[in-house]
Structure formats: C-alpha cells, structure tokens
Amino acid sequence: MSKQELILKNAFAAALAVADPQKIVPVYLRNIFPVGEEPQGKCLVVGAGKASASMASALESYAKTHWPKVTLEGVVLTRYGHHSPTSHIRIIEAGHPVPDQAGMDGAREIFQLVSQLKQGDVLVALISGGGSSLLTLPQPGITIEDMRQTTEALLRSGAPIEEMNVIRKHLSAIQGGNLARVAIANGARVEALLISDVTGDSPADIASGPCAPDYSTYQDALNILAQYQLGEGSIPEVVLRHLNRGAAGEIPETLKEDDVQGAQVRNHVIATAYKSLEAAAEYVRTQGYDPVILGDTITGEAQAVGVEQANMARQYQQGTGSIKSPLALISGGECTVTLPAGVKGRGGRCSEYLLSLFNASAGMENVSGLAADTDGIDGSEKNAGAWFTPEIRQVAQDQKLLPNDYLDKHDCYGFFAQLQALVETGPTLTNVNDFRIILLD
Questions:
Q1: CA–CA gap between residue 203 and residue 185 (Å, rounded)
Q2: What are the two backbone dihedrals, phi and then psi, of residue 274, each rounded to the nearest 5 degrees?
Q3: φ, ψ for residue 68 (rounded to 5)?
Q4: Are 163 and 224 in contact (CB under 8 A)?
Q5: Is residue 9 part of a domain?
Q6: Of 221, 216, 214, whose CA–CA distance to 241 is shortest?
Q7: pLDDT, tens digit, for every residue of 69-114?
Q8: Are residues 84 and 111 located together in one domain of the fold?
Q9: 218, 249 Cβ separation under 8 angstroms
Q10: 255 shares its domain with 298
C-alpha cells in the first residue's frame, strides 16, 4: 500500500469515527437528561435511518448503566443489513432508497405507539439519513406503490435530496413534523437526536423531519415536480391530486413553528458532515498536509463537480493558489447523477465524481483522490466509493481503460472494480453524507 493510499483511507476512517453513534449518543444523552432528570413515565424510543439501529444500541447501553429504573420500549427502522443488537427496542429492516412494505408496516407501528403516549411520557426519536424512505406512512388514499413510483421518478430526475423530501413530507402521515404533532397533542415530551446527511443540517430536512417544524408547503412540492417536468405518466394521479388538494387548503399543512409554541419539542443535531471533514483535516495535518476544507454543502451533477475540483487542483499546482507544502482538498455534500432514459448505470454519485476527477486531472502529477459515502453504500452496488493514486492511474493506462467510455455509460463502478480501487467498508452504521479528499503532493 502506497503512502497516498494509506492517507486517503485513514482520512476517511477519521471522518467516520467522529460520527460513530456508539461514541456520540451517550454524550448527548448526558446533556439532554442530566443526573436526576432521567425520563419519567413511559420512555418510548422510535427511529428511522441507516444509523438509527446503532443509535438505539448505544442508547440501550447508556440506559442500562445510567437509567436503571427506566423501562425502554420502542421500534426503530433501518436499511437491510444495518442491524445492531438491542434487547428492548425492536429493530426492523426495510427497503432503501425505494420504500417497501416492511418499512410501511414498521412506520405504521411507530405511529400507533406514539399515538398511545400520555401526559408526562417521553418520546426519544433517533433519526438519521435514509429515514425519508424507511419511515414511509402515506396519507390516506396513497399506497406504497404510489410512494415507490414517485420515489423512483424523483431519483431518476436528478432532484437533490432536499427537494425530494419536500414532496415526500407532503405525502406522509408521519414526516414533516407529523410524528411530533401526535406526541405533543397527547402531552408527551419529544427529544429527537439527529445524525445529519443533508447540506445545511436543518432538522426539517434530515429524514424529512418527523419531529421538526417544516418550512415547505404543498405548493412548493408542486413547483418542484413542475421544475423537473414530472407530471402525469411519471407521478401517480392520486399523488398529484393529493398535492393539489393540499395547495388548495383542503388538507392540513405539515407542522409549522406556530404549532410547537409552548410544547416540549427539541431537535438535537449530534453529528454533521462538517465535523467529519474537520476530523479528516486534523488527521492529514499530522501527515504533513495543509488541509483546505472546501465546505460540506457542495452539490450539483457529480461529473461537473469532479471537473470543477480537478480545475481547482490544477490551479494550485500551477501556482495560482498558495501551495507551500503538500495539500489536501476536503469536501462534503451530496452530488446527483441524472441517468438518461434507457441507461441503468453502475455505481453511485461518489464513484462518478471520482472518475470525473480522475479524467479531468489527466496529465497532472502526484494527484490522488478518494470519494465515499459515509453510510458505506454508494448507489447501486455494495462499495462505499472509490480511490486512486498515481500508481492506479498508471495501471489504468497499462490496461487501456478509457474513463470517458465509463462516464458515458455511468459505469464508474466497473472502471474502479477493474483497478481494484473500490472503497469497501460494508454498512458503517452512520451517515453524514459524502466524503471527498484530493491529495496534492
């Protein structure tokens, strides 16, 4: 393993470690429930997301030591393969990114449990990225197949996750703050712990904000569909009819700020992409690199972002930037991949970004890069992402692999698989969006 490969992979590991639910959940529980102020009455734990099962496991371990008299119960939904061991909180695995019946059944059970809370009870919600698909409980008249068809159309359109969630909130009986609405109507206290995978880290956007006041409207949802030319033929008629009725005021809006005045509802963002970027920056600094954090809100088409960051790296190498020692350009956010009709593609936005970076940085010496999704799954395959070093570039040339051919087919997985340059972690049980790093030696 070359020095550059080791640094790339260790930087990614540092980014993951600071977002580990087993480490951060206990810290926040101590702050939310100080000694002597443990939950009283019923303590119901619910949740949804790729990290939520691990969060539940961490909460149980903490409660066993610090809340010995508190009885825990509840249900948490997570993606298939993201299970963590628990004793009192039931873990249900379900479909992601396209919802399935297991998720819908689990969401209905969560809704029913929250509906049974009483005055003085505590609801602890463990929310992380992926919850929007997993916590699927459609409004009356909308089926799981309607939700699945809508989600697939949005995924293919290239719409960013925040815009996708505006639509999903307004089709859901549980998201857009509706879960908290039920709890506070019964007099319960709501404490939501959130691991953010969205740019901006707004509680309303993380897993479509089941416990947070929502800033969006039914009309916003209709405008987004119009922007991506999604209408009859791609979106079920019942969905369009529901959104139009909401925009006309015939259906109640999602939870708003005025609805939580005087209620005991708090949302705690306990892990973010930026904290992970800072951890990676601190690591590369120990390896002699000057880190430059480009931000955690970088979005856009994955191929375009790859070209943009390759140009930025080229400017640094040519002296238009201020480079006095080896440099590490670190960024986060969530790119998109728009698939043309008839193209299935293999891989995901991280692999596609990286191959675009690889292609656009051809001819540059001493450039290495890694891009990976912090949940461990990048798109359609089982890898988290991919990486390259000058040595990998040479292997690609020896094998006569042409990046443009793979970019045109959106088969970035196939390109890096042939080079044995995939990042394969398995489910990381956390999720703070995408991680990208470029080393300039």
A1: 20
A2: -65, -40
A3: -65, -20
A4: yes
A5: no
A6: 221
A7: 998 999 999 999 999 999 999 999 999 888 889 999 999 999 999 9
A8: yes
A9: no
A10: no
Q: d(Cα 220, Cα 213) in Å, to the nearest integer?
A: 15
Q: What is the DSSP letter of 208?
A: G
pTM of the full predicted structure? Answer: 0.88
Q: How many domains does the chain have?
A: 2
For residue 128, the one-letter residue type is S
For 313-341, letters b (16+ CB in 10 Å) and e give bbebbeeeeebeebbbbbbbbbbbbeeee
User: Do 148 and 280 sit in the same domain of this protein?
Assistant: no
Residue 191 pairs in a beta bridge with 124, 266
> Do residues 79 and 102 touch, judged by C-beta distance below 8 A?
no
Please tell me the distance from the alpha carbon of residue 384 to that of residue 377, in angstroms, as a whole number.
4
Rounded to an integer, the average pLDDT of 399-420 is 96
Are 185 and 138 part of one and the same domain?
A: yes
* First-to-last C-alpha distance (Å) of the chain: 17
Q: What is the Cα–Cα distance from 349 to 357, expressed in whole angstroms?
A: 12
Q: Which two tokens stand for residue 319?
A: 């002296």
Last residue of a domain, one of 241, 271, 301: 271
Nearest to 335 by CA among 216, 208, 206, 433: 433
Q: State the Cα–Cα distance between residues 223 and 344, nearest whole angstrom.
A: 27
Q: Which of 249, 271, 293 is the last residue in one of the domains?
A: 271
Structure tokens at 37: 């102020």
**Nearest C-alpha neighbor of 158 from the set 345, 405, 402:** 345
Q: What is the pLDDT of residues 331-342, one digit of tens each?
A: 999 898 988 888
CB-based contact 129:178 (threshold 8 Å): no
User: In sequence order, which residues have a C-beta less than 8 Å from that of residue 112 and are 6 or more positions away?
Assistant: none
Amino acid occupying residue 67: W
Give the range of the structural domain holding residue 297, as residue numbers without chain letter.
Answer: 273-440
b/e code 396-428 from CB counts within 10 Å (16+ = b): beeeeeebeebbeebbbbbbbbebebbbebebb
Q: How far is CA 302 from CA 58, 157, 378, in A?
A: 34, 14, 12
Q: How far apart are CA 353 and CA 308, in angstroms?
A: 10
Distance CA 182, CA 358 (A): 50
Residue 320 has pLDDT above 70, yes or no: no
Question: Taking CA 184 as the corner, what is the angle to CA 182 and CA 189, rounded to the nearest 5 degrees?
Answer: 125
Mark whether 33 and 145 lie in a shared domain. Answer: yes
189, β-bridge pairs: 122
396 in a domain, yes or no?
Answer: yes
In a domain, 283, yes or no: yes
